[in-house]
């Protein structure tokens, strides 16, 4: 079933619907009458802020609803190729506006539309300054992220991929936390440091990606992704192209050793920013490997697989150990994210059914679990305005519901079977074992280390006597927080017990990918002889 | 219907908290207990259906859990004799412990949470034993780990309880690391994780083709590359799975968490850390009996580790003063016995001891719990003495438990075809005889196991009677107010002990013929890879002089089942365990019943042996020094020196310093970097568009 059959560009509709919401929020401000300094009456300001929140929630919910409808009514999970394709001539010369989804991307579209309303809810009370701008930034970001997962044109992808960072920067830079940092001889706000760091990492990646893209266009004469996936690039060229794409995606995942921007970005970002970062933005790296590196450069992928495995194992062991030493809750979870994404990159490049499906599932599950963990930290931050582990202790006495939810997600993070985290972990490791037992051996040590750091965190924050006087009156989760965390828990639990609905969507696309990958390698080996 | 036997406790776990909030703690306790009680009744019904009577072994699949590539694992309820035995053990002990806890936990409060955890544990344990594949087994395996973590740390205000809970979880994860690799290896070799497929492939010696291989090989001869070495596939799998078993069953090297786990409430120790969860490792080895039967090296490892543990843990138990820790080390040691049996191929004997151990060890723990309550929460037996007069009934029950664990019986006397003696006597003798029989056919490790089992029997008798003498006999060393006013022990803490005491005395005799005696083949009905199949194989293999196969046919119950008696052990072997028990008893009696029981004796404080045993062979210290502290320090090092001083210094910070030197003003503006970045991107896009346009213009 394609766009032609439905007669309507549904993917474009959900992609750009959030922009419409952003526009409305902008318009809502036109009616206001600021004084000569541009400041509104408090009441007026409050009204406008509330409108912004409501519009944002409404639109993100609407987008979620439509995307769910698309998935159930229009999407055919049995079909391995791209579906719901829309194509409009754009820049000409082989560059077009082309959208479509397959088994690899559709669930990330859903993940995005699902997480966004939660982010809006998470910001409901904690964001009080420039609320309208904040909501606009989130809506614009949703458009750009959906674009990333739907784009079927390399140039269009690049546009969305790089563009999605701008709202993220704004969110960290403007609504990020306080504190200063010595850097390059300046004293600057830590949030600026975090963003500059990210900028420096990303710049390198995107420049190389851009160059590679230009080369591809020159060589293939098109930026159409389905065409490029069938285009057999010469082996020597694949090496350089692969490296260029790798530079960009590795930063995004992030892989060791280009991961150091992530803990800083997480720590500085407001809660919802962290949630988007962990749940969705990181997934764009893994998605990139699956969408481009493996199908377009199979020979180079096979060549460089050992490098990926080495870096993945480094990520799993190194960052897990680093997580053990953390004193900031968000940093700990951020480092744990790097370790979990190490499983993803490892799984992808095993090019086995379990590895690839496991990696996809792990990304999905990580979207629920680590997003929820950042929300859990946010719950405490909103109350106490600190994320320092040592500032807490014994919270279980005051916050039994919170204790239960936090424990659930901690166990999800540890990969307890029955929670979604286990499925991805198990499958990626099983895939790795098939490829090489050493990889599985080292990567599986992560199950020990993750238990150590996750339980240490939980114990220091939740257990023990409640001795700190400022914590004596800390309230338990309220209804809004209960809804956000409860919904995430329901999904993590459901997919943990019954992952088939997701795995069966991944399987056709993953099989298709592996088949083509192996065929390309066989052809190359045949040609070389 | 059958899934209910697993699900009823889950309902209890889910209901406990809401019911507690709505109708009070008592309602919550009653509901969970009744649900587990129903599960217990159902379990016994199934036991008679599946194991004792009609042999209706069956598997009820529910729905697919994880399906990916060639692998597909389902949620299911597998009912064969092995799982039926576990069902009755788990549900029965769980029910009694629920009941007991209604009294025990009364003054501690928060019982709905406690009962929720207990029921959650029961559910996970039932999932483990009724699994039809390695994945659901792993689910139960980790699930009981979670419940154990929650229950050990139940009193979360206590630092020691929190430490113990984390230690239990993490040490178990070390075992799970091996277990997980074992499952990966099974998937790699067999392309499936379902018991039936894996086991029948081995039984038929089918040709299997590991993933990515061009041609396969018969599975018994297959070698795979594991960590750079060519090794026999079934041996690798057997060893890896056993690492998991070592963690869960607290075997030597991975035992350190079990004594610490005594931080949990005493009913927990009885249920989880004595009767059920810790026996999961034994269950695993028995479930995979066909793997170990075809991997002699892995089986030898099982025996070796079991033998070391039996001896080691018993030796540490000799000098402990905490009443619960004595019983904990005793558990560790008894699990070693079970592994000795499993390793020499006497799976029936291993399961038999698991079964009887559940009775007498739960009895000893729950009895200790009554003593602790009666003595106003005192656990140090040096501060007790004379409790016999204060708690005569508890004393009686504890003596029954001790008679059972130390193995009191009459060697050589058969009544109705079963040995006459307490349960521990019957089952432990089976193990020791099996080890002897295996040793008799030239297996060195079995000789070691036999010797170790005998010595451990001396120790067992010593520490068990020492516990009785120091706690119950002699003059009271308790403070005045405790002596005068022992804490009231509610009836609900006494009644559950009665069936356990009966089981501790009689279960061995009653079930002997089924588990290991004349009816064993009919009873197990293929659930254990046992005599008939094995015997045929031996016959088939014998003409070729296949020594390995013949050697492995030693297990005593196989011989008994087949009605052969050439392995009938000599009189000295029959009496050796009994003599060992007697020596231990006499040593304890001579030392603790004459004069001041706390006087210095042969194992005087201050001596090296004393310190060595008292400090549990220094394992905690060694691990802390070698593993825990270095890991933390290394993590810190990687963070500060790796991430901050190296990666950041060379990467972004270094780069930025260079850039910043030239462009100070850009960084000064708070949000300057955004524009900076956006600008860079726009330039890139512009270049690209230009290029595209130029090219397309040229082409058209």
How are the SSEs ordered, and which strands pair?
The complex is a heterodimer of chains A (529) and B (700).
Chain A: H1 3-6, H2 10-28, H3 42-74, E1 83-92, E2 95-101, H4 106-122, H5 131-150, H6 154-163, H7 165-175, E3 180-183, E4 186-189, H8 190-220, H9 225-230, H10 235-252, H11 261-268, H12 271-281, H13 283-296, H14 298-324, H15 329-350, H16 353-384, H17 400-414, H18 420-435, H19 437-444, H20 446-462, H21 479-497, H22 500-528
Antiparallel strand pairs in A: 1-2, 3-4
Helix pairs in contact in A: 2-3, 2-5, 3-4, 3-5, 4-5, 4-12, 4-16, 5-6, 5-7, 6-8, 7-8, 8-10, 8-11, 10-13, 10-14, 11-15, 12-16, 13-14, 13-15, 14-15, 14-20, 15-16, 15-18, 15-20, 16-17, 16-18, 16-21, 16-22, 17-20, 17-21, 18-19, 18-21
Chain B: H1 4-23, H2 25-52, E1 58-68, E2 71-79, H3 81-104, H4 111-129, H5 134-152, H6 159-190, H7 195-203, E3 207-208, E4 217-218, E5 223-226, E6 229-232, H8 233-248, H9 257-260, H10 266-275, H11 280-287, H12 289-293, H13 296-317, H14 323-343, H15 347-374, H16 387-390, H17 392-406, E7 409-415, E8 418-421, H18 423-440, H19 444-472, H20 480-484, H21 497-515, H22 520-524, H23 531-541, H24 547-551, H25 556-561, H26 571-592, H27 608-614, H28 619-650, H29 652-662, H30 664-668, H31 672-699
Antiparallel strand pairs in B: 1-2, 3-4, 5-6, 7-8
